Amino acid sequence: MQTSQKHPSSAGVHFYHQPVQGIYQMLQSNLCHDSSSQGTSVSFETCKEQYFTLESCPAPTTCFVDCDDSPSYASVSSKRTPFSPQGSQSCYSDHQQSSDNTYGSPISGLSSVDDGHELKHKLRELEISLLGPEQSDSCGCCVVKGGLQGSSQLAKHNWDQIAENVAQFDLKGVLRVCAQAVSDDDVPTARGWMDNVLGKMVSVSGDPIQRLGAYLLEGLRARLESSGNLIYKSLNCEQPTSKELMSYMHILYQICPYWKFAYISANAVIEEAMANESRIHIIDFQIAQGTQWHLLIQALAHRPGGPPSLRVTGVDDSQSIHARGGGLQIVGERLSDFARSCGVPFEFRSAAISGCEVVRGNIEVLPGEALAVSFPYVLHHMPDESVSTENHRDRLLRLVKRLSPKVVTIVEQESNTNTSPFFHRFVETLDYYTAMFESIDVACPRDDKKRISAEQHCVARDIVNMIACEGVERVERHELLGKWRSRLSMAGFKQCQLSSSVMVAIQNLLKEFSQNYRLEHRDGALYLGWMNRHMATSSAWR
To answer: Motif VHIID at which residues (predicted)?
Structure first.
C-alpha cells in the first residue's frame, strides 16, 4: 500500500533516525503484505459527541432485491442478464475499469497477523522515531505484553506531534496499532490514536480504506465505550424505511455480484439435481423477496414433457419483515403469481421464524417430494458451540440431514471471524472488507450519495458487530469453507461435485462486472474472488 503524499514537518518537530512514514510503511509491508493504494487522505475531525452516529440497518443477509424479468441462468450471456446492473455502466470511470489497477487484496485464509513479535518490534521503532531512544526509554513507552503498555505518557506529551504528521501515516497500519491497544486494554493509547489520528484519516466518501476505516473506527469506539449487550445498542441508529432499505440493497445487488453468485449457482445446482423429479420441494432459509427462484421457475416451465410441481418453504425473521415491508404472505403471493404466469404448479408455505429457531415441527416434507435446501449467506448467523451449548449451527445441519434432502446448497463468505481472538478478528475483518470496498469502488463514484447510504446501512452494521460485540451479541461469525466442510461431514453430508454448467453460468454472470473478479473451481466448490482475495464460496451437499 502506498502512503499519502508527503507533507513537510511542522517547525520544532524532531524525528529521530527515520520518518514516521517509513515506520508505517514497514508496519504495512511486514504485517499485511498488501499492495493496495491508499490514495489521498480526506480529513475531518471526530468529536467526542459524534462517537455513536453510525446509521445502521439489518444484516446484509436480509438483502431483498428484485430479479424480475430474468431469463434462465442457462442463457446468461455477455448481453444484459436478469442479474446484470441496470444502467450501472454509467457509474464506471475509465481509470476505475482498468484491470491494471493497484488494488491488491490479501489471499483468503492467510492471516496477516503473526505471533505478535513483529508488531511489537515495529511499534517500538515508531516510539523511537517519535521520541528518540533516550526519551522513549525514560518515559516508559516500552512494548510489553503485546502492545504499548505504559504509553500514557506518550499520549500526554506527544499526540500533538503525531497529529501534525497524520498525512504521512499509513491508515491500515494505524488501524492495526489502535486495535492492538484496544486488545491490550490500553485505553489511553487507543483513545489517543482514535481522537488525534484516525478521526482525521477516515471518511465515508474517501477511497476504499478510508471508508472502511470510518466504520472500523466506529466499531473500536463502541467496543471501548460499552460492554456486553450495550455495545451494539449504544449506536445511535436511525432505522431506514422499508422503501429506503430496499433501494440501498438494490444498489449493492446491482453493482456487486456477490448475491447473484449465490442465487445463480443455487438455481443451477438445484435444477440439475431435480432433472427427473416430478414433485420438487425447496426449503429456503433466507427467502428474502423470493424472486431468486424466478430463474428456476422459468427453467422448469420449459422442461420437456411439461413442468413438475414446485413447493417452496420460506424461513423468515422480524428483520426481513421490516426490509420487505410485510410478512411472508407477500412473498407467497408474488411467487404464486409468477409461477402461474409460467404455467408451473406452485405452492408456498411460510415459516416465520429465525433459522436458529427452526425445529422439525416447522418443516413439512410430504411423501414423494424431492427435497432441496438452500442456505444463502445465512449459516454464519447461527450461534455455534463457542456461543451456546445448544450449538444451533450444527443442530440445524443435523436436522436438515434427517430430512433426507436430494441436494443442499451453501453459499458463505470466505472469511474467518468466528472464534478468532479480537485482534486477529480485527485484521481479518480489515483485510476482507478492504477487498469488498475496493470492488464497490470500481462500480460507483466515491461521492455517490446513494452508494454512501448503501454502505452505511447495509455493510457498516456487520463491521461494527464483528469489532464491537462479543458472546451472543456478535451475530456475524464467518468461517472458511474448510470449517464448513468439517461441520457438514460430521452431520453426515457428502459433498457433490459441481458440474461445468454451474461454472459456465457464473462465468457468464461475471462478464457484466469488473475484470478484477475471479472465479475458481477447486475441491468441488466455486470460489468467487476479488483480485487475489477469496470472497465467497458456493458448494453442494447431499
So the answer is: 280-284
Which amino acid belongs to residue 75?
Answer: S
pLDDT at 474 over 90: yes
- Reported in sequence order, the residue ranges of 103-247 that DSSP labels E, i.e. its strands, are none
d(CA 408, CA 376): 11
Planar angle of CA 466, 480, 527, nearest 5 degrees: 115
Backbone phi, then psi, for 124, in 5-degree steps?
-60, -40
Query: Cα angle vertex 457, ends 453, 460, to 5°?
Result: 110
Identity at 114, one-letter amino acid code: D
Amino acid identity, position 60: P
Cell 515495529 found at: 122
Helix (H, G, I), strand (E, B) or coil at 136: helix
Q: What are the tens digits of pLDDT across the range 439-462? A: 999 999 888 899 999 999 889 989
Q: How far apart are the C-alpha atoms of 249 and 197, rounded to whole Å?
A: 32
**What nine digits make up the cell of 390?**
445448544
pTM of the full predicted structure?
A: 0.75
Q: For 98-160, where are the E strands, in sequence order? A: none
Q: Grid coordinates 486495535 are at which residue? A: 179
* Residue 9 to residue 97: CA distance in whole angstroms: 36
What CATH number has the domain spanning 240-409+477-492? 3.40.50.150
Report d(CA 104, CA 387) in Å as an integer. Answer: 34
The pLDDT of residue 122 is 58
Q: How far is CA 323 from the centre of its chain?
A: 19
Q: How far apart are CA 251 and CA 134, in angstroms?
A: 55
What are the DSSP calls for 313-345, one per residue? EEE--HHHHHHHTS-HHHHHHHHHHHHHHHT--
Task: Please choose, from the candidates 155, 115, 109, the residue with its C-alpha nearest in 3D space to the C-alpha of residue 131.
Answer: 155
* Maximum separation of any 2 CA atoms in the chain, in Å: 86
Q: Across all residues in the chain, what is the average pLDDT?
A: 77
Closest by CA to 109, choosing from 520, 450, 483, 489, is 483
Indicate if the alpha-carbon torsion angle 128, 131, 135, 139 is positive or negative.
Answer: negative
Decide if pLDDT at 258 tops 60.
yes
Domain positions in the chain: 156-235+414-476, 240-409+477-492
